[in-house]
Amino acid sequence: MTSLQSAAFAIGDPLGGLNAFSIVSSNSSILSATASASALSGTHTITVTSLATTSSFYSDAVATSTTPLAQATGAFQISVGANPPVAIDITSTNNTLASLAASINNTPNIGVTASVINDANGARLALVSSTSGVPGNLTVTGNFHLTDIANTAVNFHQAVAGLNSSLTVDGVPISTSTNTVSGVISGVSLNLTSQAPGSPVTLTIAPDISKASDTINQFVSAYNTVIKDINSQFAVNFDGSGGGPLEADGSAREAQSRLLAALTSSITGNNGITSLASLGVNLNNDGTLSVDATKLNSTLSGKSASVQAFLQTPLTGFATNFASAITNMNSILNLDSQGITASSQSLSSQILDLQSALAAKQQNLILVYSKVNATLQELPLLQSQISQQLASA
């Protein structure tokens, strides 16, 4: 019943599988996308002119990451976007590239990640903005020096400028600081993977028939498990044998009756989607359900909005009514279970009392038997004594 209740919730969930959308991109190497339940079916033409970039700087090469640097107050400044610059001091605790990178990374709210890059030319300090696009564009001013005789200056160079992505969606120009674009198309998140100014991509958004079908099939499976378990309690053979422990239990029959009643609820109109049968979910003679996959997929493809209205309309939808029926049945079965538990406990108590009485009776009988046995063991001696007395008389 718990699994069935969860399955009923799933078909009524406005953010669940019945409301899922699938998105097909004509060129996923340029653009892919994901959709939420708030998306709308449709086709969009998108051209990715350029991708958003993440700004970065690097320094001149020095011998190694542990080459000593000259100490200086405010040796250079880093600013991210429109934020005020942050001055970087070089002290006795951070006067190598390795320790300087660690010091920058430990500076709060600076907005960059520092690292040391090594190659055949030596070691460089690399600075990468934590924010992509124009808002994260870096500006580095000033430099630092080595401790050699020449007091060699180590300058910074821009590797990549922070630029926004540029694209058109159905002819409307869009600029954004990231390559994940949300909110431009309702309920859709665009993932830009490659720029292709002359290659429009077609994005097709449609209901995800596979997920919707799976959600309904999972409900059918959960329902069939419950109804088969209930039916097994009342199944008997031709000779009258069979049946389950709850064959005479009124609550089990009540549950069976309410489940079947909940399944047959229907509405009028709604573009012909008025019952489970109109979806392609049919009630069999034994109370189980079967799915006409062809009809179900056709209905979901052509009348998805009507299917959602039948199953998910607040207060009156099938899912709400069915979940309410399950809640009521659970209450009935819980009371029945509590009654059975109380009866079982009462019987267990009676059995314990009877066992105690039998044990006491057994001890009394053993005591009587012991006395009788002792008397019987004395009889041969008593008989011998009587015989001797008779003989002497």
Fraction of residues in H or I helices: 40-55%
Biggest sheet features: 5 strands, antiparallel
> Which structural category do the helix and sheet elements fall into?
alpha+beta
Report the C-alpha radius of gyration, rounded: 42 Å
What distance separates the N and C termini? 94 Å
Can you lay out the helices and strands and say which pair or pack?
Elements: H1 2-12, E1 21-25, E2 31-35, E3 42-50, E4 56-59, E5 72-80, E6 86-90, H2 97-105, E7 112-119, E8 122-129, E9 138-142, E10 144-145, E11 153-154, E12 156-160, E13 165-169, E14 172-176, E15 180-182, E16 188-192, E17 201-207, H3 209-234, H4 250-263, H5 276-279, E18 281-283, E19 289-291, H6 293-302, H7 304-312, H8 318-392
Antiparallel strand pairs: 1-17, 2-16, 3-13, 3-17, 4-8, 4-12, 5-6, 5-9, 7-8, 10-11, 13-14, 15-16, 18-19
Helix pairs in contact: 1-3, 1-8, 3-4, 3-6, 4-8
Mind explaining what this structure looks like?
- The protein has helices at residues 2-12, 97-105, 209-234, 250-263, 276-279, 293-302, 304-312, 318-392, and strands at 21-25, 31-35, 42-50, 56-59, 72-80, 86-90, 112-119, 122-129, 138-142, 144-145, 153-154, 156-160, 165-169, 172-176, 180-182, 188-192, 201-207, 281-283, 289-291.
- The chain has 393 residues and is an alpha+beta fold.
- The longest helix has 75 residues, at 318-392.
- Strand 7 and strand 8 form a beta hairpin.
- The mean pLDDT is 91.
- Strands 1-17-3-13-14 form a five-stranded antiparallel beta sheet, with no helix packed on it. A four-stranded antiparallel beta sheet has the order 7-8-4-12, covered by helices on one side. A three-stranded antiparallel beta sheet has the order 2-16-15, with no helix packed on it.
- It has eight helices and 19 strands.
- Helices cover 40% and strands 25% of the residues.
